[in-house]
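Form 7-S
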Amino acid sequence: MYDRLFTLETKYYPTDFLCTIGQPQPLADLQLVKVAVKIIKNNNNNDICLIFFIFILILINAILFLLPKKSYITVLIAPLDWGLGHATRCIPLINHLLQSGCKVIIAAEGLQKKLLKTEFPTVIFVNIPCYNIKYTRVKRFFSVKVVLQLPKIFITILREKKWLDRFLQNNKVDAIISDNRFGLFHRKVTSVFITHQLLVKAPFILFEKIIQKINYGYINRFSACWVPDEKGSTNLAGVLSHPEKLPQIKVNYIGGISRLERQDEVAKKYDVLIILSGPEPQRTLLETKLLKQLVDFKGKALLVRGLPGFSESLSGTMHLKIQNHLPAKDLETAINESEYIISRSGYTTVMDLCKLKKKSILIPTPGQTEQEYLAAHLQKQGWCVAASQENFSLQKSLQKAQKFNYQLPDLKMEAYKEILDDFLKSI
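Output:
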């Protein structure tokens, strides 16, 4: 049909207007009418059907021209690169933004980028400066190790701020969502800071107050702060997310965030599911300890190493299956199919386990005061069994868990969707 129309166009009205057919341009419609008039004047009955086709094209062009132009909200979202938790808890936010018709740009590097790419292969990714924080092998040196890296942390904050300024010069962004990245704020772009640690636990009260002052100094540069926890007394993070004093900017408690869903009618497949995560070398140290003890374990176990994109794999046994990484849906199924979960007490993992109402044994990263506090806080509420990595015994921990009176909460974790919808309407 188009070949025939092209022949007619060159015969009756030799112009190059056909390149605009299908576009909402009144000029193209006018040219189409001129072609139709030429055909009628030449009284060519064989081309009457093409006249009808031309007027259909005119009608389509007119409809396209009158339709409102679709406007996309572009959101830049960037998780911190300390472990995988910040990246995984951004997954539900990214999903909801995409479902709301937003254009999402993810700023990430390393394992965080690999993990998010498996979940969002078609989303735009950009590289961002990494913190590359290293943890010590010995618990008592943890705080010293972190303090020695403070200059590196502050330099990285400056680097990511400069990176953002350069990025915004060449890219249109309507909103920024920063998960614990202090440098990703801009005075001309709505910038949201996500954290569950309004109070950062420290070995000494004086040090704790100094850190909180620095923490709030950065947070107050953003437009708003979103805290992924419940607002009331029944909450996940305790005093970490509910300090006596809040930042000066608007603080929204958006409820827990989890990419996983509870499955009630699921047969048990594993007695124990072990989920490793967190920075090195502590991830490997815990993995080594668990692998030695799993040799004598008679139940069915699955070990997820927390290494997305890692090519080298470990061999399992008849009773033990080992995976480097599981995508969200597979991990969701594995958790639902397991009797007990052994993992770090990282906040994102805590949110996942509480939403799925799973019995867990949580092992804080040695020296990481936040995780140590969370494990103790949750055990006090009857939501988990806390265990130490240094003296961890798989057999004794499972025996303790079997006798423990779990009182698991019923948390829907849907409030963040309403907060996001209101946020998008305000842009």
